[in-house]
Amino acid sequence: MAETSATTGTGEPASRPRKSSWKYIGPGIVVAATGVGAGDLVATLIAGSKFGYTLMWAAVIGCVVKISLAEAAGRWHLATGRTLFDGWRSLGPWTTVYFAIYVVIWGFIYGATAMSSSALPIVALFPDGPGLKFWAIVTGLIGLAFVWFNRYAVFEKVMTVLIGIMFVVVVYVAARVVPDVGASFAGLLPVLPDGSLLYTLGLIGGVGGTITMAAYGYWVNAKGWSNSSWMKVMRLDNRVAYITTGVFVVAMLIVGAELLHASQVALTSGDRGLVDLGAVLEDRFGAGTAKLFLVGFFATSFSSLIGVWHGVSLMFADFVERFRAPAAPADPAVSEAQAGPAVTERQQRSLPFRAYLLWLTFPPMTLLWLDEPFGLVIAYGVLGAFFMPFLALTLIWLLNSPRTPREWRNGWVSNGMLALAGLLFVVLCVQQVRELPW
Could you tell me what percent of the chain has a pLDDT over 90? Predict the structure, then answer.
């Protein structure tokens, strides 16, 4: 085993495998809360409204694919003691160029999107109060202050509360619409109705599939898991994360199938579709259920906001640190670029971490008043479409090479799942690029 002989603060050998236990769960909850945004829920609702329960199987496959991807990212961090960006950098300078361009453009547009998404349910809850721009700026500033002044432990607790609210609300709404259990199980049989291919690919690849999957390994280190003795714990944590995500997807499919499909209600695309759903719920179940749903909508959006503010800022801080340092050797046994909790703690106080926090918050506010520039939208769409194929294919490369200790390299199952993910995301990438407003 590629583990050190160091000891923990309690004197326990660091190389002794920890028993997987529910008490350790944390980073997975964070990645689940961050990865499921309001736009993902709307896409799932629309799939349910168009095809009923028919695409339930796609949601299940999507969970398995995401478990494999996040497990691979976490395994790299724990098995090698190196960060994911450190691994990318070892593949050549092209990864640095791609990530540098991507993280700047993506952060600029995502910042405005996240703030607007968090503001929408507040405006719907308080229609007589300030407008969308005001609340968007307020939520962005709150997210900035929260991540700036708090460390991972507090951040994880708040994310746990937010995902708890999301879970209770989404499952409650799904229960209120009374799911058709028989049709749900029938939907586990792989079927592709006419016109459903893109919705199927979106369900498998879209929900919970963002740059935050790459941030998972950084949150694993921030939690204090720093070597392969934590591998079993990480795997349990990861499974809990994406099973939770799967529950969200299934619950929203049920709502789309029962509440929208039968009555032929069409939702607005994008985050505003959830405001439409709130109005439908009010007509069907009363104002109380509608307001509860809007609270869940806010928890969904705001958890994504602070999750990205924290996780992607950590990745950017690591990017800057590795860019300044000499390239790490390919042999992890002699690597000096360790990815332990002490490094993560230092990075959370670093200038690059805070600079990227400011980049996510203040420049995007200008987009709240201006239409997004055409060229910027194109660049954002292209770079964003390429990220998930980039993640899947580079993980295959890293985890089948001497950069990873032999014991923790991919087996045939991991290679098969990552190859499936890579192929799926390449198809989605091509489709996303084709749909851009060229």
Answer: 45
Per-residue pLDDT at 371 exceeds 50: yes
Which of 107, 84, 106 is closest to 96 using CA atoms?
84
For residues 93-120, one letter each, b for 16 or more C-beta atoms within 10 angstroms of the residue's C-beta and e for the rest, the string is eebbeebeebbebbbbbbbbbbbbbbbb
* Residue 337: pLDDT over 60: no
Q: What amino acid is encoded at 129 in this protein?
A: G
In contact, 66 and 208? CB cutoff 8 Å? yes
| Tens digit of each residue's pLDDT (9 = 90 or more) over 57-109 | 888 888 888 889 999 999 999 999 999 999 999 999 999 999 999 899 889 98
| 83 backbone dihedrals φ, ψ, rounded to 5° | -80, 165
Q: How confident is the model at residue 334 (pLDDT cuts 50, 70, 90)?
A: very low
Give residue 291's pLDDT band: very low, low, confident or very high (50, 70, 90).
very high
CA distance 284 to 392: 42
| Distances, alpha carbon 76 to alpha carbons 216, 403, 410, in Å | 11, 9, 10
Residue 393: CB atoms within 10 A of its CB come to: 17
Is this structure's pTM higher than 0.90?
no
| Tokens 């695309």, residue located | 269
Q: Please, what is the Cα angle at 357 between 356 and 359, to 5 degrees?
A: 60
- The set of long-range contacts for 189-198, using a CB threshold of 8 Å and a minimum separation of 24, is 189/57, 190/57, 191/54, 191/57, 193/51, 193/54, 195/50, 196/47, 196/50, 196/51, 196/54, 196/55, 198/431
Highest mean pLDDT among 128-132, 275-279, 404-408: 404-408
What are the structure tokens assigned to 138, written together? 């307020």
> Cβ-count burial of 265 within 10 angstroms (0-12 exposed, 13-18 middle, 19+ buried)?
middle
Q: From CA 348, how far away is CA 153, in angstroms rounded?
A: 12
Q: Is the Cβ–Cβ distance between 249 and 44 less than 8 Å? A: yes
3-class secondary structure, 339: coil
Question: 297: Cβ–Cβ under 8 A, 6 or more apart, which residues?
Answer: 38, 120, 121, 274, 275, 278
Helices marked H in 150-286: 152-176, 181-186, 197-205, 212-222, 231-255, 272-285
